[in-house]
Design brief:
By secondary structure, the protein is mostly helical. Helix content is 47%, strand content 0%. The protein has a domain of 34 residues.
Length: 90
């Protein structure tokens, strides 16, 4: 360790620049929620839990803004093809 360091060319702030379209924030997430997202990424063989959280929030935003009538139509379209079919025997 040196006795003195030269910080005359040092810069304050984040070491890594934030990419365009992203904002760095501090947020408190419950441990179980964070563990779940990290577990999903781990089980998938890698990735980024923050990307997965962004995707989940984006889906929530999309469906939250969808009018009830559109939601009902979407659910009916998704479920109608399986209606009346017998479940496979075990």
């Amino acid at each position: 360790m040196k006795k003195e360091y030269d910080f005359s060319k040092g810069k304050r702030g984040a070491v890594i620049k934030t990419p365009a379209g992203k904002t760095r924030i501090t947020i408190r997430i419950d441990d179980d929620i964070l563990d779940w997202f990290r577990g999903q990424v781990h089980n998938a063989g890698g990735g980024n839990y923050q990307t997965l959280m962004n995707k989940a929030l984006r889906e929530y935003m999309t469906y939250k803004q969808e009018p009830l009538e559109d939601t009902l139509r979407r659910v009916i379209r998704e479920e109608l093809p399986t209606y009346g079919k017998k479940p496979p025997r075990k």
